[in-house]
Every structure is written in structure tokens, then in C-alpha cells.
């Protein structure tokens, strides 16, 4: 690796830290299991992923991927409709792949989490009760039996890289598992509803847009406390609280 002048802190909180050193990322995770899942899922996924350079307890070194992210939460996506369609086709390829051998979170897990987090939001006056209960009703429709597919599990807009309307890499696989295909599509378009049609143009058929919307509500409700406790702001423009409000319009 060529000489570098600095170490960039990409993300840092009490659970995990990611550092960039030149063209290498070092991911340090308090939970060894997440590091193991990331390495295994990256190797299994039939789509462009970073190379795993080496592994040690709690540390994973991976290569950088070329291109730029589809965007960031709270800002308009700079990516073209063609890039979003390419992302959709790539996700479809992942969802059509053989399942990973480890299971994902169950309907019962999500139901309990949703109930707990909505109660916390109301009890602590984080959001108006009517906003929480309205979105909770929407979110509950996602809690149904689904055909499990190979999901990324944390397919945020910053985790998909594109160049010249092609996907060059999908990063951060520590939440990969068996799960609901609509969950991945929802996480990628959270706060970017205007890009959903372009994504689905590439993804193809068998999409339930109502379930995508349900996962928008569920994700936003359940993520809020974690974000607040780890120094992030779900009330920032375009972020989770704005998504919840937009569901009422």
C-alpha cells in the first residue's frame, strides 16, 4: 500500500469504528459475530463487494470500492435514474441467490422491537403520540409471513457505490441474513421516495410497494432511540422523523 498522510475516521461509536487508511478500510467491531457475518456474506454475495484483505479478532480489513455512493440521507441523490435502475438489478441478483446458512430476524422479533420502541418514543415525549401510533399501524402491516431471500440487511444509500450507471460495490455486510426482500428495498429508498420508481425499474416484478412503505415506518420508529443514544440526529432534514411525518401526508 502506498504511503498515506492521514487516517480518516469514517464512523465511530461505542459498538463499532471504521477507519480509512489509503485504499483500505479497517472495521473494528465489539461483536465478533458481526465481523464474521460480514466476511462470509461478502464472499457469498454474487454481486460486486469489497475484497477482504485480512481478518483478526474484532478487526476486518477490506478494500475500497470505486465510484461514488448513491447518495446520503437528507440530501437529493446525485445518481442518475440509470444508476438507480442498475442498483435495482443488482439487488434482484442478490435476492435471487442461494440463502445464507444463518437465519435472520423473525416476525416476532420485529413485533416486540416495534412495540418497545414506540412505547419509548411516547413515554419520553420524543415524538407526538398520534404520529407514533399512526406509523405503528402502518409498520405492523410489514409483520407478516414472507419468503426469505438473501438480504443485505443494512442497505443504506451510502452502502451502494456506482460509476457510469453501473454498480461497482456494495459495502457493510454485517447485518446480512435471510429476510424480507422488501426490507432491503425500503432501507435503500428511506428518505428518497422519489428514486423508488427508478430502483424498481431495474429490480423487476414481485414488488409490494405498500410493504416498502410499511418498512419505512418500522425502520424509522425502531432506529430512533439507537440513533439518539449514539450521537446521531433522526430529526435532521430528510431523516427518520421526516420520513414518519411524510407517511401521514
From TrEMBL:
One of its GO terms (molecular function) is transferase activity. Residues 16-206 form the Aminoglycoside phosphotransferase domain. Pfam families: APH. It comes from the Bacteria. Keywords: Transferase. Coiled coil: none annotated. Its EC number is 2.7.1.-. PANTHER family: AMINOGLYCOSIDE PHOSPHOTRANSFERASE DOMAIN-CONTAINING PROTEIN-RELATED, AMINOGLYCOSIDE PHOSPHOTRANSFERASE-RELATED-RELATED. This is Aminoglycoside phosphotransferase family protein. The lineage of its organism: Bacteria, Bacillati, Actinomycetota, Actinomycetes, Propionibacteriales.
